[in-house]
From TrEMBL:
PANTHER family: ALANINE RACEMASE, ALANINE RACEMASE, CATABOLIC-RELATED. InterPro entries: Ala_racemase (IPR000821), Ala_racemase/Decarboxylase_C (IPR009006), Ala_racemase_C (IPR011079), Ala_racemase_N (IPR001608), P-loop_NTPase (IPR027417), PLP-binding_barrel (IPR029066), T6A_TsaE (IPR003442). Residues 349-458 form the Alanine racemase C-terminal domain. It comes from Agrococcus citreus. This is Alanine racemase C-terminal domain-containing protein. Gene3D superfamilies: Alanine racemase, Lyase, Ornithine Decarboxylase, Chain A, domain 1, P-loop containing nucleotide triphosphate hydrolases. Keywords: Isomerase, Pyridoxal phosphate. Residues 587-612 are annotated as: Disordered. Required for the formation of a threonylcarbamoyl group on adenosine at position 37 (t(6)A37) in tRNAs that read codons beginning with adenine. Is involved in the transfer of the threonylcarbamoyl moiety of threonylcarbamoyl-AMP (TC-AMP) to the N6 group of A37, together with TsaD and TsaB. TsaE seems to play an indirect role in the t(6)A biosynthesis pathway, possibly in regulating the core enzymatic function of TsaD. Its cofactor is pyridoxal 5'-phosphate.
Amino acid sequence: MRVEADPAAIAANVRTLAARVGVPVCGIVKAAGYGHGAVVAARAMLDGGAAMLGVVDLGEAVQLREAGIDAPLLAWLHSPAVDFRIAARLGVDVAVSSVAQLEAAAAAGATIHLKLDTGLGRNGIARGDRAAAIARAIELAEGGARIRGAMSHLAGSSRDADLAQVRDFEAALAAGVPLGLELRHLASSAGALALPEARFDMVRLGMAAYGIDPVGPADGDGAGASALGLVPAMRVRATFVDGAAAVGLDDGPLLAIGVPVAVDGRLARVVAVDRGSLRIAPAVTGDGVLWGDPARGEPSADAWAVAAGTIGYEVVTRMGGVGLGAGVVPAGRELAPRRVLELGLDGEPRRLLGEVLAVKRVERGLGVSYGGEHVTAAETTLALVGIGYADGVTRTATGRPIELGGAAHPVRGRVAMDQVVLDIGDRHATVGDVAALAHASAPELTGMVGPRVAVELAGVVPDADAMEALGERIGSELRAGDAVLLVGPLGAGKTTLTRGIGRALGARGTVQSPTFVIARTHRTAAGPDLQHVDAYRLLGDGEGDEAMLDDLDLDLDGAITVAEWGAPLEHALDSWLRVELERDARAPADAPATEAAEGDDDSPRFVRLRGHGQDWDAARVRSIAIGAPTSSTDGSPA
């Protein structure tokens, strides 16, 4: 499959839309530029006259800065561990959705926009907290904090409801007059086009800038976008042999039976889509276009949307995840919310994990998410979870249960690109809590990995033999310069796992705990030495002593390093595989009964593998699972 993005089309669309709305434009390039490529889209938006660029989190902002893009940037969805000092250093504006975020951003010296919930029911300062937040913002501004703007987001449930949001936003702005705000922005593509009253100082252009009708797919012929003078910027191609192409759900395309595909100028229709293949009838051979520009006789992305029961936004955005996660290196917690596709140790999808980014008490009668399809029946608590259809949660997942705090809560309102909302009533939740959408509840969660999603492997290892076999699997994927950090309590199986790694590498000598020598080097048949390190003794104070690390004269580039008690080494390395091992505390209830005394290597272990840095992208972590000899039926929280 080949995904082609036309930057000239994006630039032309921005110029067309900017001329229509008559105010400055913020070009939205979140989620890998809606699947078109973040850097390509950003440069095209600027070529088209965008005055600012919008991303969802600081991780996306850093990617643009590292690519040399120095235009004004705005990010608005933050991990509870976010480091706003990074935003201040890189000149990235941040929108804050709570008083706690406001305080943290101001203390870090970041430039701030207040994000207000005026009726969308997602992130944003709740109406009940608004007065206190604005008052505190005024105090902080008097003390030197940079409060530059205020923003909100229209729900698009009706013209009257949107106008009510405009009035509510105006009321909030009136309360914030002492702030002397420079930028007031409310409308995205659909609202900017339909509602002049919502344009204020700037509008945010997302999907329309990529040539997709922001109102919806209509009949699927792309006529709505064409009527606006927009040109589709994405073309997706695949090679068909006897009606089959090696592209499927894992690569991003949705299940869309009956949708047209153009193959060498002839129209065929999709008759089957599975994880790794797509079939059409008639069973022709040739170069096919799944969607592109209807003006060239190609199917529209909207046609795929109609057949899949969704919108063009989701269809194109999922193309940011092609390649089974190849090259996907998620940002750390200081930059972006945690988003994880969790696979079992056998490689099968288990859960999609996100974290709670906001918890707020809201009034009765509040619409939740776009269209206001769910309305709160009473005063209640909403929990915002930072995963959406750019991350693999299809829009059809509305109503699916998400586990949070030991209870299952259905997704309320429409699934958005970056977030879902849970109505948890009077139950308690805390920012940072893990939320899990199980594969059994959403079987469409195959191996598709969004551009911001990590892949982790997790499951129960039943005994020492299986632990050593898992080590062999890891060892077979290692190469010179790799570091494996083993984290877990005494007796969790760290040395047993290392023994398996050593066996895969053909390590000479007996692999045993390096406790008394701190580091032991094994020559290997594979080529690179195996360096087995006791990092607890090396950096046991938790703060790290890099001088001691230097004294060991480890070859971190030419050898393979396995560090027991390895967490303290994370700060000293750019890239690593972290393996967390825990005694059977999280083993499933139906695990074989075994002795669990300290040091008993035959009791079950719970293991989680996660990568960090460029050397451990999502595809490489995934590769460890292929053919793994252990099972993972555990459903415990992360």
